[in-house]
Amino acid sequence: MKGVVDANIKKGKEPQSLVTVLWTGETDYNNNEKLAFRALIDALNIKVIEKLREELGGMYSGGLNGSIQKRPYVHYSVSASIPCGPENVDKLTNALFDIIKNAQDGKIPQTDLDKVKETLKKQYKVSIQENEPWLDNLSQAYIDQNNPEEILNYEQRVDALTLQDLQKAAQKFLDMKNYVKAVLYPEGYNVRGSAYGRGGQYQAALKDFNQAIQLNPNFYQAYSNRALIQRFLGNQEAALADYNRSIQINANYDAAYIGRGNLYRIAREEGCDALVLGHHREDILETFFMNFFHGGRLASMPAKLLNDEGNLVVLRPLAYCAEDDMAKFAAAMQFPIIPCDLCGSQDGLQRNAMKDMLADIERRMPGRKDTMLRALAHVNPSHLLDPKLFDFAGLMAGETAPKSE
Predict the structure, then answer these.
(1) Structural domain that includes position 147
(2) Mean pLDDT of successive 10-residue segments in the chain (405 residues)?
(3) 30, 225, 277, 310: which has the fewest C-beta neighbours closer than 10 Å?
């Protein structure tokens, strides 16, 4: 079947969605093209992490996976997975497609390709220390009647990869006129209304949001979205009432919707060279454990960060401050407080679960939060498992062990 298949599925009650995009097709089997295919997937995942996860703040796991198989016939498959809130489906899907289009237009940064090459070569050096990869190579070469010695020039083939190779792979394997996209929405979520009345059908969208609010009076996204429609229709008082209701249900939803991406954009448009954010100790720890449990990686939010373009410094001056201490200080100074939980304010969402877990640990073992924060500043790569951070393959008995940086 050719063309674009777009399907929406409604299942479950939790306010969670999952976007899955699948590309498949027949191809020719070529080791160099297969290597370019793998490098493309890795390069795209770098941008998915940077854009969808870190800049837009819309997901903590997901990304692209792909493979080229010879049996039962030579074919490829690529899948993209975006777990997110239903209100972020369009935004994150469009961001993913923009990343793919940039790759097809030859806009993958050389720095990303260099990172991919380094990772592939380090993984190769680690793998050839074991017998299994050699056995797999020999058996596959026998079955496919290929040259088994190609494994010996793997690093040279990686070094030979170019941006043009990745561009050709993106154009061939990610055909934007031939894919399947399926989106899981919670039951009762009005997908048409979420489009904010595209095509001038604001009245139809308004009706949809009215029905959604009748079904769930605490559906804060519906109030916030309906406020936008009311503004488009000129009903300013109604828009303000809906906006205030969304704030009552979820004090910081609109800030979460705007997201870090818009903050970065506005800072650049205003000619700023720094962006100061108010994340505190608990934010840092919650983000670490969300990445740990749900993203499968060790990462949090640094106190100082330079964006990819190198033109904006992100500062978090409160990174080492405890949330309780800040609350006491704010009360003493009589500062107005707006409740804030940018990354999941509804009960049961991931950040709330991490917050509850950390609070329980602190109750049972006072001082553990400070200990965890100190741990984030004392990382020993040689005692972890990431070959990109430490040369495990280079360790030999009788030699001085390389020191961790």
Answers:
(1) 4-184
(2) 82 86 90 93 93 80 87 88 89 94 95 94 87 82 80 92 96 94 85 44 70 71 70 72 66 44 70 88 91 82 84 91 90 72 44 86 92 93 88 78 54
(3) 310
pLDDT value of position 92: 92
Residue 374, domain CATH: 3.40.50.620
Integer angstrom CA distances of residue 266 from 238, 257, 305, 308, 315? 28, 15, 17, 16, 16
What gap in Å lies between CA 224 and CA 88, rounded to an integer? 13
Candidates 385, 387, 389, 388; CA nearest to 404 is: 389
CATH of the domain at 115: 3.30.830.10
94 in any annotated domain: yes
Torsion angles phi and psi, residue 7, rounded to 5: -125, 140
Same domain, residue pair 220 and 364: no
Question: What span, in angstroms and rounded, lies between the C-alpha atoms of 322 and 339?
Answer: 16
Provide the pLDDT for residue 99: 96
Tell whether 393 is covered by a domain. no
Q: Which tokens go with 203?
A: 């009245």
What is the pTM (predicted TM-score) of this model?
A: 0.52
CB-based contacts of 401: which residues, under 8 Å, 6+ apart?
A: 382, 395
Nearest alpha-carbon partner for 82 in 194, 13, 169, 182: 182
Place of tokens 């020999």: 138
Q: Phi first, then psi: give them for residue 17, nearest 5 degrees.
A: -130, 165
